[in-house]
Design goal:
alpha/beta; 3-stranded mixed beta sheet; 27% helix; 18% strand; globular
């Protein structure tokens, strides 16, 4: 009599304690970390801006006895903000729910998927606004973007790429810290690096030489921040699939690309406080005072689905 086979003794079924999904860790998204979030009650409104030069220029003069003191003042204008609403839904149909194995938690999966999608969109928008060419930064040593090149030209807008062992990234960054402080009256406290830029810096001989006698001897963002006397160094590890669905040739890239942003980011927003950026968050529709984000679940009976 033949012995039973493995397939006779065991019917394969999905494991109930493990599954694989390529969700990115929430910690890789930095869009909400760099600039302070400002909760607002209106989707669009205005805010006051003071003329920078008026505050960096002194009108104070010596005052002779019996004379009127010198008069001074500053100009105030307004700027606008608009909060776009970003949303996505994922339907969970009744047939899908009825057929799902215990290892599949459709509500949890849909919640995580929607959350990831929103966070990725926010990251991409942040890069577009702050890291793209022509973003409008004016505090650096040159009025245009600084460009890393293999063989730099003799202009202040170019520097040797940091993956070149002959480059001098510490001097480059400290030079820009000095320039931004001179042009804005605030010393930069934040450095944002694309993943590839961080990798180049972490392996750069100049930086490794500076930290070789530290406890670990390994470059970390905290160690780099200490070396440059900055409050924060952020690395943008979020990745993005750039081809539309469906595609037989997927193409992935880091959201940030090969870019770096050095800036002053105010951590305690208030009146008369400059910052390279703020994030206005419209909290009215959701009632969420912190970040304005909300997950909703509702019934769509014509589609026999929970949304």
């Amino acid at each position: 009599m033949p012995n039973p086979t493995v397939s006779d003794l065991h019917v394969q079924a999905p494991l109930g304690d493990i599954s694989v999904a390529f969700a990115q860790d929430h910690g890789v998204f930095i869009a909400t970390k760099v600039f302070a979030q400002i909760p607002v009650q209106k989707q669009a409104d205005k805010f006051f801006t003071y003329n920078k030069e008026d505050w960096l220029r002194t009108e104070a003069r010596p005052r002779a006895p019996g004379t009127v003191s010198e008069s001074g003042g500053f100009r105030v204008t307004t700027d606008n903000y608009v909060c776009d609403r970003i949303a996505l839904n994922m339907p969970v149909s009744d047939p899908e729910r009825a057929n799902a194995d215990p290892a599949i938690n459709l509500d949890a999966d849909a919640t995580e998927y929607v959350t990831q999608q929103i966070m990725l969109r926010e990251e991409i928008d942040w890069v577009t606004n702050y890291l793209s060419t022509g973003a409008g930064w004016t505090g650096a040593s040159n009025s245009t973007n600084l460009v890393g090149q293999a063989a730099p030209a003799t202009t202040t807008s170019n520097f040797r790429q940091w993956n070149d062992a002959a480059s001098v990234p510490i001097e480059d960054i400290r030079g820009e810290i000095t320039s931004i402080a001179r042009n804005n009256g605030r010393r930069p406290n934040t450095l944002v690096l694309g993943a590839q830029v961080w990798t180049a810096l972490a392996d750069h001989p100049d930086i490794l030489d500076r930290i070789k006698y530290t406890e670990k001897g390994v470059v970390t963002t905290d160690l780099l921040a200490s070396l440059l006397d900055l409050d924060n160094v952020y690395t943008m590890w979020a990745t993005n699939e750039t081809t539309a669905e469906p595609s037989s040739t997927p193409s992935k890239s880091f959201v940030s690309g090969k870019a770096a942003l050095l800036c002053y980011a105010e951590k305690s927003p208030g009146l008369r406080k400059p910052s390279a950026g703020y994030t206005f968050v419209w909290t009215g529709p959701t009632g969420q005072p912190k970040d304005g984000a909300r997950i909703k679940k509702f019934r769509d009976e014509p589609r026999e689905s929970d949304i």
